[in-house]
Write a structure and sequence with these properties.
- The protein is mostly helical and 182 residues long.
- The protein has one domain.
- It contains six helices and no strands.
- Helix 1 (2-25) packs antiparallel against helix 6 and helix 4 (76-94) packs antiparallel against helix 5.
- The chain starts with a helix and ends with a helix.
Length: 182
């Protein structure tokens, strides 16, 4: 009888875990966290394409074009913008909050290095900061659920494996005694 009760309680906790995971999957906040990153990613993509097309469309000689292209692409503003764009892409596709934080900081660096164009990246900076805070809250809540699940597993596991664990301990003791005698 006690074994069936243990099995039922283990089955019940497994069912509760599935319900918790299903609830977190259906949570609309998970989608909105990524939507903020996606919107910032799309805006930055459009901005970078616009910068490149504007730069190419100026129509200058090849020598001047090479020099100005090199100077422009090695400028701190462009490097910070590309790094922010890459971090935003990682945040969008991996769903990790820290990528958004790095992206936000790099957008700030972009605004500081070229203050004349701050209005072009301020929206992305705000969106990635908001996304960071929302994703971070979600990650903290998921970590709390995982701690509760681990505690439930730790309570259920010794009940199932107790005879095996006791046998392993006895074998270990015998091995130690045998080594001590030699």
């Amino acid at each position: 009888m006690p074994d069936t009760e243990k099995a039922q309680s283990a089955a019940g906790s497994a069912k509760e875990k599935k319900e918790i995971k299903a609830t977190s999957i259906r949570n609309p906040n998970v989608i909105s966290d990524r939507v903020l990153s996606v919107v910032a990613f799309i805006i930055t993509t459009a901005y970078l394409i616009g910068l490149l097309l504007d730069f190419i469309a100026e129509g200058m000689s090849y020598d001047i074009f090479v020099v100005q292209t090199t100077a422009y692409f090695l400028s701190p503003m462009f490097i910070a913008l590309v790094v922010a764009y890459l971090m935003n892409a990682l945040a969008t596709f991996q769903g990790k909050s820290w990528w958004n934080l790095i992206s936000s900081v790099m957008y700030i660096v972009t605004m500081v290095t070229l203050p004349e164009l701050w209005f072009c990246v301020v929206l992305q900076c705000i969106l990635t900061f908001l996304s960071f805070f929302r994703m971070r809250n979600r990650e903290v809540k998921q970590a709390e659920v995982e701690v509760v699940e681990a505690a439930a597993d730790a309570q259920a596991t010794p009940l199932v494996n107790t005879p095996n664990k006791q046998m392993e301990e006895l074998v270990d003791k015998k091995d130690e005694e045998a080594e001590a005698q030699h």
